[in-house]
């Protein structure tokens, strides 16, 4: 579908769905000083694309999977807006439009049909991720529940019951790969895999070995440590002993 509405811009919202949220966002965009841009709105099963009519510059390129809610404005016949998740900031943004030829209800219905076509093409992915869509014909609104985001290994390990595969999904069949030019991985011979007998002659080997260590490697038994301790003990004995001059006798102690 191709339509030429006025693009009012986008504003951040704090809810992912709700007609009142879209109406308040459209009210803010209409009362702002931002000049509306005449653009071309392309609606397909893959996404929403807004291109400026005069310069043909790309303004918005939104995948349909990230659109969570769209609705016409009940207070303004030409008003239409949709809420989506911004891919960079992860914020909920509401984009507002004013239709020139058609009504806002027709634009909202077109977006809902595009999302339904997207879900129809991705039924298998819908089963794995649990994405559902409900359409309200009275208000011409649709609501997406769930996420297309693939769960990580950490999330699956935290709660395996929520992310277990469904019983309808059959496991993929394994196909044999034949490559005549492939080099086979080397394998151990049966003799190498046999358990070898225990050798219990370590005591005799230790006695007759030419590499037997004669000195201990303990810090307290090292020759340098023993020599240092001996020298310190000799110096201590010399300092404690009084020095006597030759040929003189010390006076008796009274």
TrEMBL record:
Q: Does the keyword S-adenosyl-L-methionine apply?
A: no
Gene Ontology annotations for the cellular component aspect, listed alphabetically: cytoplasm
Q: Which residues does the UniProt record annotate as the domain PID? A: 7-128
Which keywords does the record carry?
Developmental protein, Phosphoprotein
- InterPro entries, per database record: Numb/numb-like, Numb_domain, PH-like_dom_sf, PTB/PI_dom
Q: Where is this region: Disordered?
A: 230-254
* Pfam families reported for this sequence: NumbF, PID
Keyword Signal on entry: no
Q: Which PANTHER family match?
A: NUMB, PID DOMAIN-CONTAINING PROTEIN
- Protein name stated in the entry: PID domain-containing protein
**Which organism encodes this protein?**
Ladona fulva (Scarce chaser dragonfly)
Please spell out the taxonomic lineage of the organism that makes this protein. Eukaryota, Metazoa, Ecdysozoa, Arthropoda, Hexapoda
């Amino acid at each position: 579908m191709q339509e030429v509405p006025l693009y009012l811009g986008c504003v951040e919202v704090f809810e992912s769905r709700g007609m009142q949220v879209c109406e308040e966002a459209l009210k803010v965009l209409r009362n702002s000083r931002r000049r509306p841009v005449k653009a071309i709105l392309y609606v397909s099963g893959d996404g929403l694309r807004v291109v400026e009519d005069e310069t043909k510059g790309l303004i918005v390129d939104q995948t349909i999977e990230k659109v969570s809610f769209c609705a016409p404005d009940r207070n303004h016949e030409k008003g239409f807006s949709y809420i989506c998740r911004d891919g960079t900031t992860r914020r909920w943004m509401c984009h507002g439009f004013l239709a020139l030829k058609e009504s806002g209800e027709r634009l909202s219905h077109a977006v809902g049909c595009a999302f339904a076509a997207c879900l129809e093409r991705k039924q298998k992915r819908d089963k794995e991720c649990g994405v559902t869509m409900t359409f309200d014909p009275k208000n011409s609104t649709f609501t997406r529940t769930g996420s297309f985001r693939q769960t990580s290994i950490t999330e699956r390990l935290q709660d395996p019951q929520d992310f277990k595969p469904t019983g309808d999904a059959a496991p993929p069949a394994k196909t044999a790969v034949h490559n005549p030019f492939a080099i086979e991985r080397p394998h151990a011979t049966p003799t190498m895999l046999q358990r070898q007998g225990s050798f219990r002659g370590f005591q005799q080997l230790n006695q007759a070995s030419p590499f037997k260590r004669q000195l201990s490697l303990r810090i307290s038994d090292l020759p340098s440590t023993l020599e240092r301790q001996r020298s310190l003990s000799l110096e201590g004995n010399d300092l404690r002993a009084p020095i006597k001059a030759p040929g003189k006798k010390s006076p008796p102690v009274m």
